[in-house]
Amino acid sequence: MGLLSQGSPLSWEETQRHADHVRRHGILQFLHIYHAVKDRHKDVLKWGDEVEYMLVSFDHENKRVQLVLSGEDVLETLQEKGERTNPNHPTLWRPEYGSYMIEGTPGQPYGGTMSEFNTVEDNMRKRRKEATSVLDENQALCTITSFPRLGCPGFTLPEYKPNPVEGGASKSLFFPDEAINKHPRFGTLTRNIRHRRGEKVVINVPIFKDKNTPSPFVETFPEDEEAAKASKPDHIYMDAMGFGMGNCCLQVTFQACSISEARYLYDQLATICPIVMALSAASPFYRGYVSDIDCRWGVISASVDDRTREERGLEPLKNNSYKISKSRYDSIDSYLSKCGEKYNDIDLTVDKAIYEQLLQEGIDHLLAQHVAHLFIRDPLTLFEEKIHLDDANESDHFENIQSTNWQTMRFKPPPPNSDIGWRVEFRPMEVQLTDFENSAYVVFVVLLTRVILSYKLDFLIPLSKVDENMKAAQKRDAVLQGGSTVVDGCGKAQASSELAAEEYTLMSIDTIINGKEGVFPGLIPILNSYLENMEVDVDTRCSILNYLKLIKKRASGELMTVAKWMREFIAHHPDYKQDSIITDEINYSLLWKCNQIANELCECPELLGSAFRKVKDSGSKTDSSK
Ligand code: GLU
Ligand code: MG
Fold first, then answer.
1. Which ligand is nearest to the CA of 245?
2. What integer best gives the mean pLDDT of the chain?
3. Is any ligand 1 atom within 6 A of the Cβ of residue 52?
4. What share of the chain is helix, strand, coil (3-state, %, to 5)?
5. 30 lines ligand 1 (CB under 6 A)
6. pTM score above 0.90
7. Is residue 28 within a helix (H) or strand (E), and if so which, with residue range?
8. Nearest ligand, CA of residue 95?
9. Measuring CA to CA, which residue among 124, 122, 120, 125 is closest to residue 443?
């Protein structure tokens, strides 16, 4: 989730007192970096994925599954056995928000050659195996985006009661502080978001109305005034950062060859975010209920929304400086490249003084407004030992603000004095059940960047349309409902398409991914024609084709998204009463099935298709359907 500073976190009051100091020095640190490396070019493509995992424990006798709060210990063991012993260790492990979570990445970034696409899945398998090997019996590493009974009584092992009392970090009615990672960053973030906002965070997710779901669906919280006021009828109410940041995702970071290539990729991929998010949809259940959404995005967004009532526009501005239209976790608000400029059509709140300062330092309007927009936020944590820094050689204050702006895309300047180049991070995807699927999504996105750069494709549409797409993409069955997604005509590459005349139009995800004659060539056909012109060894090619087949079939509806598959699994479960309730037993069956699919490569034709079935334990790339 970001850098971890060691040390003692300051209280919210003290952190707030240093807010201007952090912003002022954060900008100076950014300027030092910018001036030092703005002309860097010829960096090579490097990239890496990040997979977030949950630790679960199965109780087969009682048919229960719980989240194991041992992330810190598991992480310590993995780092000790891995990167600390061997600098070339093939995996790296990092903490995540939940005490039941860890994050894994490849030990070294991947490079630009095609054959590296063939090593992604092996590396993900290694990670799964390595982490699984340090778990207790009956425990497993799961790549699920949201744990269906997160926040239900006894969902953790060991069990803890929530602590909705003064002094707690979340003050949640459902989510105990013990489920938050023990590193001080995470509890402090939780507490300070709540302090800054002036009340607990509020998450209301529409409930899925099944045959026997009460209508209206109303939960009452007589013992908690805040909850009674905040919870909405026909919604699943949640009140803690953990309900959002306690979810898992799949991210990809690329190093571009120069700052301008990074800005171009940032923009182009931003428009792709809602489409790939919808295709990766994997989180239909919250707090033990079936919801009416398929993606985590809006839940996390609300879970870290630290805006005050004034900033949310509910009260006239008095103590705060701006009305702010989005949470810190949300879609991007401005394009960064020249060709994006005319599509910057959403209101952008900026810190004017910082904007002017950046212009004076020779930074162009687009980059200046991007940074000045990130810097309207307050620092959420500050460590006593990290207040006074060497702005020419450190960047903690810049990173403090940058890393708590969790947007769909992140534009990352190089760290000071490093040989890392300008990077962009692609952040909207939900994590999939299997290493095969996760590899497929990662490879698809990386290949897309290659094609965008080689063919100079232009997918830009007005950012307000991207935001509409983000909203649509989270809805139940977004892939198939279609009708709300818009993409540019990609006219430069395929000038013959009818779209060349029009700038953008409404298309289904199927059309965008697979193409439709006379309308749009389709991303997969474009990727395929790119691949035909590349030197690729047979084995790699076979893997890539299988990956693209998965994306293609998910887009067309031939295969289900993980979210849809989970809904079907629940709907057909003998214990399910068509009342939108996921009991302990149903949850256990679902998670056990997910675990089997991930580890035993068992057949799941609706999800993976028989074409993707792998021979058990062989680790080979054989396509057994042939
Ligand atoms: N777990 C968060 C998500 O699902 C991302 C946290 C991070 O930035 O690493 O989007
Ligand atoms: Mg993470």
1. 1
2. 93
3. yes
4. 40, 15, 45
5. no
6. yes
7. helix 19-37
8. 2
9. 120
